[in-house]
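Record format v2
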Amino acid sequence: MAIDDKTKSELREIAARYPEARSGLLPMLHLVQSVEGRVTSEGIELCAEILGITAAEVSGVATFYTMYKRRPVGDYHVGVCTNTLCAVMGGDAIFERLKGHLDVGNDETTEDGKITLEHVECNAACDYAPVVMVNWEFMDNQTPESATQLVDDLRAGKEVQSTRGPKICTWREAERVLAGFPDGRADDGPAAGPASLVGLEIAREQGWTAPEANNA
Amino acid sequence: MPDTLTPVLTDNWGDDRAWTLASYAARGGYSALDKAFAMDPDAIIAAVKDSGLRGRGGAGFPTGMKWGFIPQDNPKPKYLVVNADESEPGTCKDIPLMMASPHTLVEGVIISSYAIRANKAFIYIRGEVLHVIRRVQNAVREAYDAGHLGKNIHGSGYDLDVVVHAGAGAYICGEETALLEGLEGRRGQPRLRPPFPAVAGLYASPTVINNVESIASVPSIIGNGASWFSSMGTEKSKGYGIFSLSGHVKKPGQYEAPLGITLRTLIDLAGGMREGHELKFWTPGGSSTPILTAEHLDVPLDFEGVGAAGSMLGTRALQIFDDTTCVVRAVLRWTEFYKHESCGKCTPCREGTWWLVQTLAALEKGQGSEADLDLLLDQCDNILGRSFCALADGAVSPISSSIQYFRDEYVAHLTHGGCPFDHTASTLFAAEGANA
Ligand SMILES: Cc1cc2nc3c(=O)[nH]c(=O)nc-3n(C[C@H](O)[C@H](O)[C@H](O)COP(=O)(O)O)c2cc1C
Ligand code: SF4
Ligand code: FES
């Protein structure tokens, strides 16, 4: 698939956000993934051309970061946290269950092209362990059962809502937001999930506060 | 004596639509900004110094002092870069902060940039948190629309532009010089220091890099005064901080308290350990900080207290494991993480983390002999302090500390011919009998 002119101008627009164009490379590669479904050779060459660097330099960057994929990613990237805390709390069991249920290995995509399964590192949501990310949205406090239901719903095209965010969009749509093009969903979902508020709730119950300001 | 919990940064997280400018402004948000603009930039730096604020990203470097290192006579542009890469295993405070109250961060960015005389600031957010990125993008746009960003902010004559930048998956990009490489569109490999970023950072220009929570603390310091901030905390660890409890406690989550609170108090607040189980080991500040045990329940969680106990306060990422958890399994998994995340720039870390995984994986399976424990410690010795950046030092922390406290458990794997623990028992759903 040829990258169209709109995308080309958006790639230039990203580079123009920075005092030095090359700083745009990471978001530019996110945009390439959003239109191509992965980092393609064409995308690499285009970034190189816009930034005035070699394709090898772009490629060297693309291979360094784990979010960039050279193989096509499904509509839904399902990342199971298997870093220690989540693994112990059940992430390992969830990952094993999903591998069997979807009949894929790590970093593989189901035959229908819907789901790419990967184990991911700590996603800064340990207080919601075990955590599963779908297209980098939080699915907190999962069990093997809930995760199985989750992927079944995604494959069946049912609407799935992040536990701390909006309805799940596609992986390509998510990549576009990461490239710096908002999708208007910032106001969806809660301000905070329950675990984020536990300390605050105790403080309110006890009447605990920070001291009064001593110079107004 | 301040209260046990002191919500400041977390105070508005339960508000209706807390992430919006309207909600933030309704409780006085952006009023510290006017106070700041009435001050000389140097006076802001002085106030932050006086407050005693130390970096919340792990190392605890005094924030005001860091800002003071920016050579103001250098004609190059100055930059502020916010480190929102939050990837240290166990650390989960900056992400909920940016999700619930991104404007606290944005207001902090404006005041901090004004203080160091930067006209351009970057917020580098790890790419794997889509909704948080939406919220910060949105807050920045709202701030522009309201005249808090852009040209001649609040009629002060001061201009500031902010760029929200999404990373792409690399723990090492939390290390500040690797982050700069990522922000310059390169592979995220740490830079040689000196020169320090304060002198030659982003685009070889003077640059301040601070953690999200550090920058988000600035509006409260300017708004309420340096002595208000330093009235909380301990002698050398001032102020409040977010303590993140995860794992086998009844109520994991975020607890904002003066530095110096103990794990005993925090576990109490969290409703205690899981029913019928006891604390076995914990990390005070993420996986890179040596593990501690139940002996350390009364250690004051400040920089000095945790240091004296042989670990580090780090990011106050308290990962709590009970007696069902196999420490060897936990440590092996962390070690696999460091091996995966090693950027490959230097040999002791690149090769060393690989060897650590080999040795540990064999031990976990019950293969090898007790001499392998000494081999492991030897390998740690060859990595610690001999690598290019602190990632490698972090990689050996769980290993050496776990051997210190749980040598017998390693040996038990050998005598048992494998892991003696039932991994199902540590899961959250163990009670329901639901497992793979
Ligand atoms: C491997 C490694 C990962 C790091 N990750 C982070 C991170 O995710 N967030 C962060 O703020 N600091 C991180 N740091 C610390 C930064 O290098 C730096 O000290 C910090 O951003 C400075 O901000 P502060 O003074 O406000 O704490 C990391 C350091 C290392 C060595
Ligand atoms: S210590 Fe590891 S992460 Fe740091 S520079 Fe060396 S190889 Fe890279
Ligand atoms: S360990 Fe899974 S989110 Fe932190």
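The two ends of chain A are 61 Å apart (CA to CA).
Chain A has eight helices and five strands.
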